[in-house]
C-alpha cells in the first residue's frame, strides 16, 4: 500500500544533508542545475549558506522533493513538488508564521490544505509575478539624482516604506508605535549599503532597497516606491535598471524581484528595466 502525501512525514533537515539539499535546490528538484532554478530558490539557498538548516524541514524523509523554511521572523517559504502540500500544511500548523511566499504551484495547495486545519487563521493571499534579470547590459539611462541612501534620508525612507505597506495591500496604515520598527529596518539597510534613493530639487522622491544580497546567490530588489507626484516619469524603470546593472557588473549571477500580478505599470516598468517574467508566486499574510 502506497502512503499518501499527508501520511509521508516531513523531517528536520540534518546538517549532514545540507549539501544534498543545496544541490537539489540549485536544480529546482530536477536533474540539472540552472540559473533560473538557483535564482528561484535564492532565499532558501542563502539561508542554508548562512547555516540556518535547523529552520528547514524536508519531504519526504529520504530523497526529498520538497522543503519548507520557517524563519525566526515569521516568514514561511515552501518549494518543490506540489504533492508535498498536505504534509507541509500539517507542519505549518505548528509554526507561528506571519508571511508565506513561494511558487504558486506549491504555495496555493499548501494554503488550501492549511485552511482546513483545526487551528486555522484567516489568511489573505494574492498572486505575484516572479521576475529575473540575468544580463548585465540594459538600454536604460540611470535617472538623475540616483545615489546610495544616507542616514539623513531616514525620515523620508520610513514614510515611503509605510506608504508602500498600504499601497501594496500588506495591511492597514502602520500606527505610530510601529514606525520605529520600520525606521530601524531602513536604518539597517542604509548601514549595509542596500538602499538607494532618487533625489530631485533637493528632496528624496523615490527609494529602492535590497531584501537579499549574496555574491553567489544574487540579489533581490524590494521596496521600490516613487512619490505620487513623480510617477510616470520613468524613475522606477531607470533606478531599478541602473541598480540591477551595477549588481550584475559586480559579478552577481542575477537579480530578482516580486511584483503584484495586478500591478500592470510595475510589471511593465520592470520589463523595460531588463527583467523577464518567470511565473506566478503567492504571497499570503495572516
> What oligomeric state best describes the polypeptide chains here?
single chain
Helical/strand content category: alpha+beta
- Mean pLDDT comes to 92
Number of beta-strand segments: 12
Helical amount: 25-40%
Binned strand content: 25-35%
Number of domains: 2
Largest sheet, strands/sense/barrel? 12 strands, mixed
CATH architecture of the largest domain: 3-Layer(aba) Sandwich
**CATH domain class of the largest domain:** Alpha Beta
Strand order in space, largest sheet? 1-2-3-4-5-12-6-11-10-9-8-7
- Poorly predicted ranges (pLDDT <50, ≥5 residues)? none
Separate helix tally? 9
Structure write-up:
The protein is 34% helix and 27% strand. It has 286 residues and is α+β, with helices and mostly antiparallel strands. The protein folds into 2 domains: 11-121, Aminopeptidase; 146-279, 3-Layer(aba) Sandwich (Aminopeptidase). The two termini are 37 Å apart.
In a few lines, what is going on in this structure?
The chain has helices at residues 18-26, 35-40, 42-49, 85-92, 104-114, 154-167, 176-191, 235-249, 264-272; strands at 11-12, 56-59, 66-70, 75-80, 99-103, 124-133, 146-148, 195-200, 203-214, 218-226, 255-260, 276-285. It has 286 residues and is an alpha+beta fold.
